[in-house]
Input
Amino acid sequence: MAEYTEKMDKAIEATEREFSKIRAGQASPAILNDVRIDYYGTPTPISQVAKVSVPEPRMLLVSPWEKTMVDPIEKAILAANIGLTPMKDGNCIRVSLPILTTERRQELAKIARKHAEEGRVAIRNIRRDANDSLKKNKDLPEDEVKKQQDEIQKATDKAIAKIDSLLAEKEADILKV
Output
């Protein structure tokens, strides 16, 4: 049982990570988490070659630890195709986030709902795997199997409720003007 609740917690964490990548009105360093820089031939996350800070509510400041990395970081942000345009500013890069239109906010809310549904499906798959392993175990009495299935269902309901609350929070953040 502990194994399956741990898997459900990981599914919730994965959904939270996906939500953090969706930008609402404010800038967040998590927006650039998926950007990879070619660091001496190795694709490296931006957080390992630069400091990403938020000096203003709608601006990211990327400060590379090596001055030679300014151009590769700028190219990587453009190539990531996340709708952001970096601007060189001496030894750092400024990334300003455009104001979101109502249509774009609704589109982002739809993306958040899609990620939430993927999280719910992952949790339901974990429930199915747990129930299948219980049914295959011939050593357990029938009433014990039923008891375990009820516990698995309660854990599933709790995990799905957590994802739903995270979704409601994220949608409110996205749609807030």
Residues 102-136 form the longest helix (35 residues). The beta strands are 36-39, 42-45, 50-56, 59-64, 85-89, 92-96. The longest strand covers residues 50-56. The helical segments are 2-21, 70-79, 102-136, 142-175.
